[in-house]
Amino acid sequence: MAISLKVNGQTRSVEADPAKPLLWALREDLDMVGTKFGCGAGLCGACTVHIDGNPARACQTPIGEAQGMAITTIEAVAKSDAGKRISDAWVKLDVPQCGYCQAGQIMSATALLATTPDPSDEDIDAAMMGNLCRCSTYVRIRAAIKDAARAGAKA
Amino acid sequence: MNAPILSRRRFLSASLVAGGGLLFDLNIPLAGAAEGAPQILTAFVRILPDNRVIIGAKNAEIGQGAKTMLPMLIAEELDVDWAQVTIEQTHADQKIFGGQTAGGSRTTPREWLPTRKAGAAARAMLVAAAAQIWGVAPATLKTGSGKVSDPASGKSISYAALAAAAAQQPAPDPATLTLKDPRDFRIIGQSIGGVDTPAIVAGKPLFGIDFKLPGMLYAVLETCPAFGGTFKSANLDEVKALPGVAHVLTIKGDGTPESLFDGVAILSTSWWSANQAREALKVEWDMGAVSGFSTEGYAAQAAQRLKGKADGDIVRAGDVDAAFAAAAKTVSAEYDYPFLAHGTLEPQNCTALFKDGAIEIWAPTQNPESGRGLVAKALNLPPDKIRINFTRIGGGFGRRLMNDYMVQAAAIAAQLPGVPVKLLFSRQQDMQRDFYRPAGWHGFRAALDKTGKLTAFHDHFVTFGKDGKPVRSAEMPATEIPAGLIDTVLLEQSFLATNMPTGWLRAPGSNALAFVTQAFLDEVAQAAGKDLPTLMLELLGEPRDLPRGPNAPPFVTGRARGVIEKVVAMSGWADRGQLPKGRGKGFAFYYSHMGYFAEVLEVALVDGMPKVATVWVAGDVGSQIINPMNALHQAQGSVIEGLGQALAGQKITQVAGAVEQANFDTHPLQRIPDTPQIIVEFVKTDYPPTGMGEPALPPVIPALVNALHAATGKRIRTLPIVPEMFA
């Protein structure tokens, strides 16, 4: 059946089972492969997107339930002020190693910065602990979030 | 300065390939190149008409930084600005590109000279072309920023303008090429970000899983949960009738994990649909004898074997029995560690298109040529009918040195000529169809004389083997320290049978052997009334070279001493007695992948589990850190990964021949709150640069358990560490 999704400000129609996870609708039906499949069980955070501004695991979100909600993915995250600062900091500090988890990391970090402009280490731990990085880029993830926060304070 | 770690033959072969591009032995058409088309100078370098330089990155990028590092070497010697450079991943063809395996931290030592020479050869031809045009001697000309200039006349000409003339120059003899003096490096030694970082941050398709072809079908492949089980029957028709299912195919395996097990492939235009359909698939497997293997069984057998005589010697030197009989003091302990999965965050996948008797493959592989051989065998195809394209890789860690997913994708695609097929593992399949870091058990004994000197060392290693040989990644080298440093040593081994496929996990062998040997030597040091750095420095003795076989550089005791002394100074080791009660520091040294690493770690128990505060890392990987930022990142990642192996609860267990763990809840990784402060310093020595992908990992595990002993008095001899150990 046709499901209407609002992705990155555009309304897109997907012909699929309403139970299909948003992750796979994005990757297969909408050809947006920036959102990554890692575990399929909400354990790794690689598929993190924003739904109505909140970080959500796209592998655990059936498209039937995401209808009408505002979905933001890595492909458009840099359009927001927080997302731009996070993305810039990620490049500046060269956060990625293999890079596979980083879309999810950036989405979680952006959601944190949007609500907490000057996050403490504890805030960062709480917001980011659902996102695994197999290469263990955590030192730079922490540093990049702080860098992005400083960039916001200056602006 | 020592000779580079390349045999002459290997170097010549690599330089022939590198130089071959310049010599046009590869028949690259240049004279007929269309107007505005790139002028191909070597297999690695193209110079565009606007003086941009395309440099081919020939090794797979798994997060180790090779895609940035290798072009840095070329750009440096070609003498162009990094801003001029665009990097393109090459495809896999060792006949053109030479070695393309990304593993063993070997890329840096293998490529340091040949890849720079490729750049230097291109530069020499450009200079020769300019010299010819201007009628001056090449030696009088200078290069820089992609231009040749003549200081005498003030003339200058861009590389682009010279490309066609340069292509007509005779290729220089690689042996006569002069490489830059390191003092003149402008790119090597600079911190340069990953070439794909902006694309990663923007969510661009880069990885194997992202690759798509028109009309592509997604495949899931079901195999027997117990490794080696064979297909009997399945409800294939029922699954075929499910919505969205395009094909259901049986795959006949050859029974080897490296290639193909029997399986059932389900194909759909959606991977999610194919995987949903898999839940309805009911297969009857013939388990044969493989269902008899279990973790419990291995542990019981290992305990039994440690009590008895070993199957054979790894190395026996001196009179071990006499030394123990004469000892003033002996120390003994048993250590063990579990199987581990790789858990690359990008699950195994591969895309394949079989058409007209040839196959094209898009694979996240660390080891393409091995895959080519396996596919050729499985499909009965000539190797030149197989084209392998690299994708960026969402984590390697040694998992993708194996090419099982490539053979499987190829076998499925071969049944559907003309249809592109992407095989993708679910996370459960990825965790349950790995090539695991093998478990192991060690029974150690050490003899001390009355002065506290280590006089004999004995390790009975119970590992997995077949036909009297260890299985992949289950071996212990005869040079395992303290072997080679004392006169009386016995390293011996016994083999257990298993159906578990085993393989290389980052710092293979070393990630386990460092733990057991450096932790036991910490026990020995304490029994001798000294600390481990002191014992290690005594064992290392005077600076000297200890041979490590024909294909490896010698172990240089002076380099080991250098990093030990460095980390002792960095970490305030001498003042560790002043730490508050409940905090402790531990030390370990390990040499692996040509890298010398000594680490100190500070830890305390928080809520009953170890919390690592700081890790100090001193490393010696030679004379030059090529990309300092990436070297630091590799060291940080190695340290946290090692801590994860010890602390996160990683342990693969087997029941009835099958792996129990299915996801990151039962085989966890470190998470961000577990990140300690990591301080890394390099000791530069006059040896050729070596790799950073692995050698910082092994010492962190023994440093941790040694620190935990200092902090709590508890000696950890089993991994993973669990709260009950401190109860």
From TrEMBL, chain A:
Lineage top rank: taxon: Bacteria
E.C. number(s) listed in UniProt: 1.3.99.16
Entry-linked InterPro entries: 2Fe-2S-bd (IPR002888), 2Fe-2S-bd_dom_sf (IPR036884), 2Fe-2S_ferredoxin-like_sf (IPR036010), 2Fe-2S_ferredoxin-type (IPR001041), 2Fe2S_fd_BS (IPR006058), Beta-grasp_dom_sf (IPR012675), Diverse_Oxidoreductases (IPR051452)
Keyword Nucleotidyltransferase: no
Keyword terms of this UniProt record: 2Fe-2S, Iron, Iron-sulfur, Metal-binding, Oxidoreductase
GO molecular function: 2 iron, 2 sulfur cluster binding; isoquinoline 1-oxidoreductase activity; metal ion binding
Gene3D superfamilies, alphabetized: 3.10.20.30, [2Fe-2S]-binding domain
Pfam families referenced in this protein's UniProt entry, alphabetically: Fer2, Fer2_2
Domain 2Fe-2S ferredoxin-type: 1-77
PANTHER family given in the database record: BLR6218 PROTEIN, OXIDOREDUCTASE WITH IRON-SULFUR SUBUNIT
Protein's recorded name: Isoquinoline 1-oxidoreductase alpha subunit
From TrEMBL, chain B:
Coiled coil feature spans: none
SUPFAM superfamilies xref list: Molybdenum cofactor-binding domain (SSF56003)
Key words, A-Z: Oxidoreductase
Domain of life: Bacteria
Keyword Oxidoreductase: yes
Location of the Aldehyde oxidase/xanthine dehydrogenase a/b hammerhead domain: 202-289
EC number: 1.3.99.16
Cited Pfam families: MoCoBD_1, MoCoBD_2
MF terms in GO: isoquinoline 1-oxidoreductase activity
InterPro entries hit by this protein: Ald_Oxase/Xan_DH_a/b, AldOxase/xan_DH_MoCoBD1, AldOxase/xan_DH_MoCoBD2, AldOxase/xan_DH_Mopterin-bd_sf, N-heterocyclic_Hydroxylase, OxRdtase_Mopterin-bd_su_IorB, TAT_signal
Protein name: Isoquinoline 1-oxidoreductase beta subunit
The species this protein was found in: Sphingobium scionense
